[in-house]
C-alpha cells in the first residue's frame, strides 16, 4: 500500500512541475510583449513631440522669410554660425541648419535628435525672402 501512495504523490509533483513550467514560459512571452509595447509607445511619443517641434520651427523659419537670425528670435533662442540648436523636453535637441540659398529662395534642414545622438525626425523647409535680406 505504501508504494501505491508514493506513485500518486510522484504523479502529482510531476504534474505540478509541468504546470509551473508552462506558466513560466507564458510569463516570459507576456513580459517580452509588454516590454516591446512600452518601447513602441515611448518611440511614438518621442516622434510626436519631435514632429510638433519641427513643424513649429519650420513655421518660424518661413515666417522670418528664411532669415535664421530672425527665426531664432521668434523661437526665443540664440543662433550659432548659421545654425540654431536648442533643447526640447524629453531629452531631445532640435537643430536648424541653413542648407542652401538661391536668389530669393533659402532652405533649411530641421532635425530632432535624442541626447544620445539618435535622429528621430528630419525635414527640409524652404522660404522665399521677398526683401532679399539675409
Notes on the structure:
The chain has 2 helices and 4 strands; from the N terminus they run H-H-E-E-E-E. Strand 1 and strand 2 (92-102) form a beta hairpin. It starts with a helix and ends in a 6-residue tail after the last strand. A 4-stranded antiparallel beta sheet has the order 1-2-3-4, with helices on one face. The model has no long low-confidence stretch (mean pLDDT 87). It is an alpha+beta fold. It has helices at 2-63, 68-75; strands at 83-88, 92-102, 105-114, 119-128.
Helical residue percent band:
40-55%
Shape: rod-shaped
Which stretches are low in confidence, meaning pLDDT under 50 for 5 or more residues running? none
Report the span from N to C terminus.
101 Å
- How many helix segments? 2
Mean pLDDT: 87
By secondary-structure content and strand pairing, the structural class works out as: alpha+beta
Main beta sheet strand tally, sense and closure: 4 strands, antiparallel
Report the β-strand fraction as a percent range: 25-35%
Structural descriptors:
single chain; 134 residues; alpha+beta; four-stranded antiparallel β-sheet
Amino acid at each position: 500500500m505504501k508504494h501505491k501512495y508514493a506513485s500518486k504523490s510522484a504523479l502529482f509533483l510531476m504534474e505540478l512541475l509541468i504546470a509551473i513550467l508552462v506558466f513560466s514560459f507564458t510569463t516570459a512571452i507576456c513580459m517580452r510583449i509588454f516590454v516591446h509595447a512600452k518601447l513602441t509607445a515611448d518611440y511614438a511619443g518621442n516622434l510626436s513631440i519631435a514632429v510638433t517641434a519641427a513643424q513649429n520651427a519650420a513655421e518660424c523659419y518661413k515666417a522670418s522669410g528664411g532669415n535664421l537670425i530672425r527665426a531664432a528670435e521668434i523661437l526665443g533662442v540664440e543662433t550659432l554660425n548659421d545654425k540654431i540648436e536648442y533643447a526640447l523636453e524629453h531629452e531631445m535637441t532640435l537643430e536648424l541648419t541653413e542648407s542652401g540659398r538661391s536668389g530669393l529662395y533659402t532652405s533649411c534642414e530641421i532635425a530632432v535628435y535624442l541626447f544620445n545622438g539618435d535622429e528621430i525626425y528630419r525635414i527640409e523647409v524652404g522660404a522665399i525672402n521677398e526683401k532679399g535680406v539675409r
